[in-house]
Design goal:
There is one protein chain. This protein is α/β, with parallel strands linked by helices. The protein is 45% helix and 21% strand. It contains 6 helices and 6 strands; from the N terminus they run αβααβββββααα. Helix 2 packs across helix 3. It starts with a helix and ends with a helix.
Protein backbone atom coordinates (compact mmCIF):
# COMPACT_ATOMS: atom_id res chain seq x y z
CA UNK A 1 0.00 0.00 0.00
CA UNK A 2 1.40 3.34 -1.02
CA UNK A 3 1.77 6.19 1.42
CA UNK A 4 -0.05 9.50 0.97
CA UNK A 5 3.33 11.16 0.42
CA UNK A 6 4.01 8.77 -2.50
CA UNK A 7 0.64 9.60 -4.11
CA UNK A 8 0.81 13.35 -3.50
CA UNK A 9 2.88 15.31 -5.99
CA UNK A 10 4.46 18.25 -4.09
CA UNK A 11 3.20 20.44 -6.98
CA UNK A 12 -0.35 19.36 -6.09
CA UNK A 13 -0.29 21.31 -2.82
CA UNK A 14 -2.13 24.64 -2.60
CA UNK A 15 -0.73 26.42 0.46
CA UNK A 16 -3.57 28.99 0.44
CA UNK A 17 -6.82 28.61 -1.45
CA UNK A 18 -8.30 31.73 -2.98
CA UNK A 19 -11.74 30.05 -3.01
CA UNK A 20 -14.35 31.36 -0.58
CA UNK A 21 -17.15 28.82 -1.05
CA UNK A 22 -17.58 25.09 -1.61
CA UNK A 23 -18.11 25.31 -5.37
CA UNK A 24 -14.98 27.45 -5.81
CA UNK A 25 -12.93 25.07 -3.63
CA UNK A 26 -13.92 22.11 -5.82
CA UNK A 27 -13.02 24.11 -8.96
CA UNK A 28 -9.64 25.24 -7.57
CA UNK A 29 -8.73 21.70 -6.48
CA UNK A 30 -9.81 20.36 -9.89
CA UNK A 31 -7.83 23.02 -11.79
CA UNK A 32 -4.69 22.08 -9.84
CA UNK A 33 -5.25 18.39 -10.64
CA UNK A 34 -5.95 18.97 -14.35
CA UNK A 35 -2.79 21.11 -14.64
CA UNK A 36 -0.77 18.09 -13.47
CA UNK A 37 -2.86 15.40 -15.23
CA UNK A 38 -3.90 17.11 -18.49
CA UNK A 39 -5.64 14.03 -19.88
CA UNK A 40 -8.35 14.51 -17.25
CA UNK A 41 -11.52 16.28 -18.37
CA UNK A 42 -12.06 19.20 -15.97
CA UNK A 43 -15.84 19.21 -16.45
CA UNK A 44 -16.07 15.45 -15.84
CA UNK A 45 -14.02 15.70 -12.63
CA UNK A 46 -16.25 18.54 -11.36
CA UNK A 47 -19.37 16.60 -12.31
CA UNK A 48 -18.14 13.54 -10.34
CA UNK A 49 -17.30 15.70 -7.30
CA UNK A 50 -20.64 17.53 -7.33
CA UNK A 51 -22.52 14.21 -7.69
CA UNK A 52 -20.63 12.88 -4.65
CA UNK A 53 -21.42 16.01 -2.61
CA UNK A 54 -25.15 15.55 -3.37
CA UNK A 55 -24.97 12.25 -1.45
CA UNK A 56 -23.70 14.14 1.59
CA UNK A 57 -20.90 16.58 2.31
CA UNK A 58 -17.36 15.26 2.26
CA UNK A 59 -16.63 17.79 5.01
CA UNK A 60 -15.87 15.21 7.72
CA UNK A 61 -15.49 17.69 10.58
CA UNK A 62 -12.60 19.10 12.63
CA UNK A 63 -11.88 21.53 9.78
CA UNK A 64 -11.25 18.69 7.29
CA UNK A 65 -12.89 17.91 3.93
CA UNK A 66 -12.02 15.04 1.59
CA UNK A 67 -13.89 15.55 -1.68
CA UNK A 68 -13.50 12.40 -3.75
CA UNK A 69 -14.75 10.47 -6.73
CA UNK A 70 -13.92 7.94 -9.42
CA UNK A 71 -13.13 8.51 -13.07
CA UNK A 72 -13.07 5.94 -15.86
CA UNK A 73 -9.78 5.45 -17.77
CA UNK A 74 -7.70 7.12 -15.06
CA UNK A 75 -4.30 5.42 -14.79
CA UNK A 76 -3.70 5.85 -11.06
CA UNK A 77 -5.08 7.48 -7.96
CA UNK A 78 -4.57 11.27 -7.86
CA UNK A 79 -4.38 13.54 -4.82
CA UNK A 80 -4.40 17.30 -4.30
CA UNK A 81 -3.97 18.94 -0.88
CA UNK A 82 -5.15 22.45 -0.14
CA UNK A 83 -5.39 24.74 2.85
CA UNK A 84 -7.59 27.71 3.63
CA UNK A 85 -6.40 29.49 6.75
CA UNK A 86 -9.65 31.52 6.80
CA UNK A 87 -11.80 28.43 6.36
CA UNK A 88 -14.66 27.71 3.96
CA UNK A 89 -18.22 26.61 4.67
CA UNK A 90 -18.18 23.07 3.27
CA UNK A 91 -21.44 21.97 4.93
CA UNK A 92 -19.35 19.84 7.30
CA UNK A 93 -21.04 17.41 9.66
CA UNK A 94 -19.95 19.40 12.73
CA UNK A 95 -20.86 22.80 11.26
CA UNK A 96 -17.25 24.04 11.42
CA UNK A 97 -15.50 25.74 8.52
CA UNK A 98 -13.18 23.44 6.56
CA UNK A 99 -9.53 24.49 6.37
CA UNK A 100 -7.70 21.36 5.21
CA UNK A 101 -8.72 19.65 1.98
CA UNK A 102 -7.63 16.47 0.25
CA UNK A 103 -9.03 15.90 -3.22
CA UNK A 104 -8.94 12.21 -4.09
CA UNK A 105 -9.71 11.00 -7.61
CA UNK A 106 -9.43 7.26 -8.19
CA UNK A 107 -9.70 5.00 -11.24
CA UNK A 108 -13.20 3.55 -11.54
CA UNK A 109 -12.19 -0.01 -10.65
CA UNK A 110 -9.90 0.87 -7.73
CA UNK A 111 -12.33 0.38 -4.84
CA UNK A 112 -9.83 -1.05 -2.34
CA UNK A 113 -7.10 1.51 -2.98
CA UNK A 114 -9.65 4.32 -2.93
CA UNK A 115 -11.05 3.29 0.46
CA UNK A 116 -7.62 2.59 1.98
CA UNK A 117 -6.37 6.01 0.88
CA UNK A 118 -9.46 7.71 2.33
CA UNK A 119 -8.83 5.86 5.61
CA UNK A 120 -5.15 6.89 5.65
CA UNK A 121 -6.02 10.55 5.06
CA UNK A 122 -8.69 10.43 7.80
CA UNK A 123 -6.22 8.83 10.21
CA UNK A 124 -3.52 11.41 9.44
CA UNK A 125 -5.89 14.38 9.87
CA UNK A 126 -7.58 12.97 12.98
CA UNK A 127 -4.52 14.09 14.96
CA UNK A 128 -5.12 17.63 16.25
CA UNK A 129 -1.36 18.35 16.39
CA UNK A 130 -0.89 17.42 12.72
CA UNK A 131 -3.84 19.65 11.78
CA UNK A 132 -2.28 22.52 13.76
CA UNK A 133 1.10 21.97 12.07
CA UNK A 134 -0.51 21.95 8.61
CA UNK A 135 -2.37 25.20 9.36
CA UNK A 136 0.83 26.85 10.66
CA UNK A 137 3.12 25.65 7.82
CA UNK A 138 4.71 28.54 5.92
CA UNK A 139 4.45 27.08 2.41
CA UNK A 140 3.68 24.04 0.24
CA UNK A 141 7.12 22.49 0.85
CA UNK A 142 6.60 22.68 4.61
CA UNK A 143 3.12 21.12 4.24
CA UNK A 144 4.62 18.22 2.25
CA UNK A 145 7.30 17.68 4.92
CA UNK A 146 4.66 17.58 7.68
CA UNK A 147 2.68 14.92 5.78
CA UNK A 148 5.90 12.95 5.12
CA UNK A 149 7.03 13.14 8.76
CA UNK A 150 3.69 12.17 10.29
CA UNK A 151 2.65 9.40 7.99
CA UNK A 152 2.72 5.93 9.47
CA UNK A 153 4.10 3.04 7.48
CA UNK A 154 1.61 0.75 5.74
Amino acid sequence: MMKISELLNPQAIISELSATDKKEVLAELTDTLVALVPELDRNRVLEVLHEREKLGSTGIGDGVAIPHGKIAKLGELQLVFARSTKGVDFESMDGQLAQLFFLLIAPEGAVGVHLKTLARISKLLKDVNIRKQLLAAKDAAAIYQIILANETSP
